[in-house]
Amino acid sequence: MADGHCRLGGRRMNKKKLAIGILLIVIAPIILFRLTSCVERYLPRTKSYEKYPYEFEEAFNEQMAEYGMSIDIDSVPFMYNDNNSPYKTVPVQCEDGSEISCTYRPTSESRKALLFWIKFEQQLTGEEGETIYMEPLLEFLFQEFETPITEDKDSTYEPLKALTYNEAVQCCRDFVAGSERKTSFLVFPYKEEGYGVILERIRGEKTILALKLIVS
User: Fold this and answer.
1) Are residues 131 and 24 in the same domain?
2) Does residue 85 belong to any structural domain of this protein?
3) Domain match, 173 and 100 both
4) Per-residue pLDDT tens for 96-138?
């Protein structure tokens, strides 16, 4: 009788252990995900280009308010390119009626995803005296994503292949005033770390000027 009781107790104990094991298997990924999210929240990001989309939005709305601009990244859904990578094209609200959009590509749809690249496009009206915002947009991007080059505007880590801040701004100014279809250059905000800037003029029924910064 005692042996039967022990065997019954043993089976109950095994079932209990099995149930606990299954429970741990189910909840372990959830716990790990939450722990990872908490750790990511407090990990220091050492480079200025390491930004989340909502941080970019906040900075844009704060700094570009002087130009009458603002964006709302939640106003449009994610879209996907041929590689099924997410991106958003967000209209920039401009008080003067300028038609500007901002397209950005994050690492994922997560709120904690980092940005790969950002592109601004302004559709020109062709009217005399029209305000073109490529230069202030470039300066904003440098301030937020390539901060070190804004601190010494006449220096670069790579003088043979990268522009200084002042040279980059002048290049943008010359591009807007000229007729060149496309130009690109590098900036080196950190030693041995260069990032590309692309300026493009897209001709059609209306000309579009595009500014793209590859931040990661």
Assistant:
1) no
2) yes
3) yes
4) 999 999 999 999 998 889 999 999 999 999 888 899 999 999 9
In a domain, 171, yes or no: yes
Which of these, 100, 106, 74, lies nearest to 87 by C-alpha position?
A: 106
198 and 189 Cβ atoms separated by less than 8 Å: no
Three-state SS at 116: strand
Number of domains within the chain: 2
Tokens for 197, please give them.
Answer: 């800037």
Structural domain that includes position 126: 53-214
Fill in the amino acid letter for 81: N
Residues 200 and 155 occupy one common structural domain: yes
Q: Are residues 21 and 114 in the same domain?
A: no
The Cα 188–Cα 44 span in angstroms is 21
Same domain, 37 and 116: no
Q: What is the DSSP string of 149-197?
A: HHHSTT--S-TTT---HHHHHHHHHHHHHS--SEEEEEEEEETTEEEEE
Look up residue 114 and give its DSSP letter.
P
CA distance 71 to 61: 7
Q: What is the pLDDT of residue 112?
A: 85
Q: pTM of the entire structure?
A: 0.78
Rounded to whole angstroms, how far apart are CA atoms 27 and 75?
Answer: 34
